[in-house]
Amino acid sequence: FSTYAADYAAISNAYVYNPAGNSWAAPSNPIQGNGVNVLTTGYNCTGMISPAYGFLLDMVNYYPGRKIAIILSAYGGKEIAYFMRGNSSGAYNATIAAANAAVAMSGGTIRGVLWHQGESDSDAGKLTLYEDKFKTFVSSMREDLGLPSLPFLAGEITQDSRYGTYSRGLAFNAEISRIAAGMQNVYVVSSGGLTLQDTSWHFDGPSMVTFGQRYAAKMRDILSGTAD
């Protein structure tokens, strides 16, 4: 996440699910990082911007007249194991419960999962275990949401060569691309050209917006049947 949220305007015709009130809230700031409209445990997202902003910004333009919504589940600095079914963190159960409640309340349809994670699994010892965990996670999500072909959009991590995380980012990105190529309805979103704001993997504000717009472009291609 980036700490530039105050620099960006609210988005019209977009919604973020509020699990506390089982309702849709208009984004009053770019991420809804106020602890109310974000599913979050042990991580303070207040005032920060994520790829969700650029995603919603472009999706409402791609589909004028449609209600575009996101269930934003934000957990920072976690390994993939934290998100998996059965983990004691409860992150997985909370996300599934919110997704099911949102659909039941609104009558909407879940069109895809935006996945951006991997920094904590990018060292050599953990990276070799990522494929099995990712495939299990995707399978579990599809099963528990009752959507066996649900698209997953996996974003790459940093390629910014200014910092020591560069080589780990390249290794992880190569691995997620290899994994996705062998899975159905799993797509990779490029982080090429995006820049960091610090040495801790965090993209700067403009890069976060661009990244979210790339997610939106990929989702548009998926919905139109032209994604590769």
Number of strands: 6
Given the helix and strand composition, which structural class is it?
A: alpha/beta
Looking across the biggest beta sheet, what order are the strands in? 2-1-3
Oligomer: single chain
Helix fraction, binned, reads 25-40%
* Low-pLDDT stretches: 32-37
Residues in β-strands, percent? 5-15%
Number of helices: 6
What Rg do the Cα atoms give?
16 Å
Head-to-tail CA distance between termini: 27 Å
Name the average pLDDT. Answer: 85
Shape: globular
Order of helices and strands: EEHEHEHHEHEH
Largest sheet: 3 strands, mixed
Summarize the structure.
The chain is α/β, with parallel strands linked by helices and 228 residues long. The protein has helices at 51-62, 91-106, 124-127, 130-145, 166-181, 205-224, and strands at residues 14-18, 23-25, 68-70, 113-115, 152-155, 186-189.
Features:
single chain, 228 residues, alpha/beta, three-stranded mixed β-sheet, three-stranded parallel β-sheet, 6 helices, 10% strand, globular
Note the topology.
Blueprint (H helix, E strand, L loop, with lengths): L13 E5 L4 E3 L25 H12 L5 E3 L20 H16 L6 E3 L8 H4 L2 H16 L6 E4 L10 H16 L4 E4 L15 H20 L4
Parallel strand pairs: 1-3, 4-5, 5-6
Antiparallel strand pairs: 1-2
Helix pairs in contact: 1-6
